Amino acid sequence: MSPLCPLLLTLALLAVPGVRGACPAAADLTNADGTRTCAKLYDKSDPYYENCCAGAVLSLESGADLPYLPSDWTKVISSIVVGQRCELTVWSGRGKEGKSRKFSAGSYPRLEEYRRGLFGDWSNAISSVYCRCLPAGPNTQTPEPLTQTERP
Q1: Contacts of 76 (CB under 8 A, 6+ apart)
Q2: Distance between CA 99 and CA 126 in Å, rounded?
Q3: pLDDT tens by residue, 34-61
Q4: Which cell locations does it reside in (predicted)?
Q5: Residue 103's domain spans which residues?
Q6: How far apart are CA 122 and CA 90, in angstroms?
Q7: Three-state DSSP class for 110?
Q8: Is 30 inside a domain boundary?
């Protein structure tokens, strides 16, 4: 086997989308029929950013209100991508109880980096979610920026 084979295989794997676990861009959250996805939640993250947003995926449409996540998704979410002009609100307790945080459009590959209170973080801590998107269109007013705030 020539020494070029491993190099070519590595380059081919890097060029194929979806082989790496890298998070998609917020603008890429669309369904096959062209409709927007509000957010995607992933159950795997990694110390290496290129390996984040892997594993099982839970896609949320605009208006998705889940005060009680399915049992296999409660407290396992570790990466999030929020679509453009969308906002995801999460809670640490079931029934929208406990600490909350709003995530605006963008990728959040390692929820370990986002504080939840004094000693906690948001990785494997989400039990309730609400996702909303502003309508897209030329006549839409520019909204105030969505902030990432944490309620005590």
Answers
A1: 43, 124
A2: 9
A3: 788 999 999 988 788 888 898 899 999 9
A4: Zymogen granule lumen; Zymogen granule membrane
A5: 37-133
A6: 9
A7: coil
A8: no
